[in-house]
Specification:
Elements lengths: L4 H12 L6 H8 L1 H9 L5 H10 L12 H13 L50
Helix pairs in contact: 2-5, 4-5
């Protein structure tokens, strides 16, 4: 554990300057819930997303404003990491979903009902013309 504030600041600065870390990907990871909520409304236009991120001052691993392709690829990487992991204190306690009310309607139509049962033998022979 580093106790000296000066040393801790130097370590933080050194870790932040490691080449290859993408501030774009880190920003998307931190704001994942907001991004997912916005993308749930419709497919994103990646050029617009890249423009908004550049306006917010987010840069890619090279320190440049993100391109549409870089934003898309960074988002796909963040999304592939799995569900976001909120700290335990911030996570709501899971509650069971409410039970659906009992249904008095007929069950839904099942188009495959009876499709795999054996067919009865034909009762009539084909007619023939004489």
């Amino acid at each position: 554990m580093i106790d000296d504030n000066g040393e801790a600041a130097r370590v933080r600065a050194a870790l932040a300057s490691i080449a290859g870390r993408s501030p774009l990907q880190d920003w998307l990871r931190r704001n994942r819930a907001l991004v997912e909520a916005r993308f749930a409304a419709g497919r994103p236009r990646w050029a617009s997303v890249a423009g908004v991120l550049a306006d917010l001052g987010v840069v890619d691993a090279r320190g440049q404003p993100p391109t549409a392709q870089a934003a898309r690829q960074a988002w796909y990487r963040v999304r592939a990491e799995g569900p976001s992991q909120a700290p335990a204190a911030a996570r709501p306690s899971p509650s069971p979903p409410p039970a659906p009310p009992p249904s008095r309607t007929r069950p839904a139509f099942d188009p495959t009902e009876g499709a795999f049962e054996a067919k009865p033998p034909p009762r009539f022979r084909p007619a023939s013309l004489k």
